[in-house]
Amino acid sequence: MTPAPIAVALDAPDLETAARWAGLVTPHVTTVKVGLELYLRYGPDVIASVRGASGVRVFLDLKLHDIPNTVAGAAGAVARLRPSILTVHAAGGPAMIRAAVEAAPHTQIAAVTVLTSLAEEDLERIGLAGPASDAVRRLAALSVAAGATALVCSPHELRAVRAEVGDDITLITPGVRPAGAATQDQARVATPERALADGADLLVIGRPITGSPDPGAAAAAIAASLRRTSHA
Ligand SMILES: O=C(O)c1cc(=O)[nH]c(=O)n1[C@@H]1O[C@H](COP(=O)(O)O)[C@@H](O)[C@H]1O
Fold first, then answer.
1. Which family would the database say this protein is a member of (predicted)?
2. For 121, 162, 173, 226, which has the most beta carbons within 10 A of its beta carbon?
3. 64 labelled as ligand-binding?
4. 20-77: per-residue pLDDT in tens?
5. How would you classify the pairing of strands 150-152 and 170-173?
6. Which among 85, 106, 110, 107 is positioned nearest to 97, based on CA atoms?
7. Which of 225, 226, 167, 223 is nearest to 24 (CA)?
8. Spatial distance between the Cα atoms of 148 and 62, rounded to a whole number of angstroms
């Protein structure tokens, strides 16, 4: 069975749990994602631990956001780990994004537009005018112009972003919840089937899989549902 285009967010409190989750979901998904919690606790060793023998793609989600020189150094430092994808915040601006792209030439740089935990009413408070989709589209365009080949946005903006940046850019969407699942701290959400139909290339899913008593079965169920939808 072809693995589904899902990155399972391994937001685990310890390395053993993360590696166990990675082993359980790997037959069903293309990618596992290491975020700040694991990386700050265990450092670079975490990448080899979750990659295991399977050679699953590892998405390193550090959301770098600093001046270009600092981001170049940080991206260069993790580039040697050969993650498939590395995140930076689009709000760091074009020079910062370009610095990451140049420092990690073998890694796909994904620019995070507007966090999926922010609701429309939060945007004004952080100084982003207009609906989320306007801010996301603006940040998407500047990120691609600066050399990013992947973007992170919520499922709500997928169609607008695709129209803005075209088919060659990888669209990654967190904020994915199977029907009936709790949204938790996510604000702009949709089901996996909806997100895929709206043009996502990679769905980031964490707690709906890792919070299940059987993460392997949860990943397999979502993967099967995506296969049914894409063949319908
Ligand atoms: O860059 C990300 O992956 C990311 C961007 C974003 O806007 N929202 C977002 O939730 N994420 C990450 O996606 C994952 C979502 O996890 P769950 O909410 O448990 O499915 C977490 O690891 C977040 O750090």
1. Belongs to the OMP decarboxylase family. Type 1 subfamily.
2. 173
3. yes
4. 999 999 999 999 999 999 999 999 999 999 998 788 999 999 999 999 999 999 999 9
5. parallel
6. 110
7. 223
8. 15
156 is in an annotated binding site: no
Q: Which residue has the tokens 């100084």?
A: 127
Encode pLDDT of 134-146 as tens digits: 999 999 999 999 9
Ligand 1 centroid from CA 175, angstroms: 7
Instruction: Kindly state if the Cβ of 110 falls inside 6 Å of ligand 1.
Output: no
Tell me the C-alpha to C-alpha distance, in Å, between residue 128 and each of 108, 155, 203: 27, 19, 25
H or E element: which one contains 12? none
Write the residue with the smallest CA distance to atom 12 of ligand 1. 174
Q: Are 207 and 174 in contact (CB under 8 A)?
A: no
**Ligand 1 touching residue 65 (CB < 6 A):** no
Mean pLDDT score of the chain, rounded to an integer? 96
35 lines ligand 1 (CB under 6 A): yes
Residue with tokens 């959400």, as numbered in its chain = 189
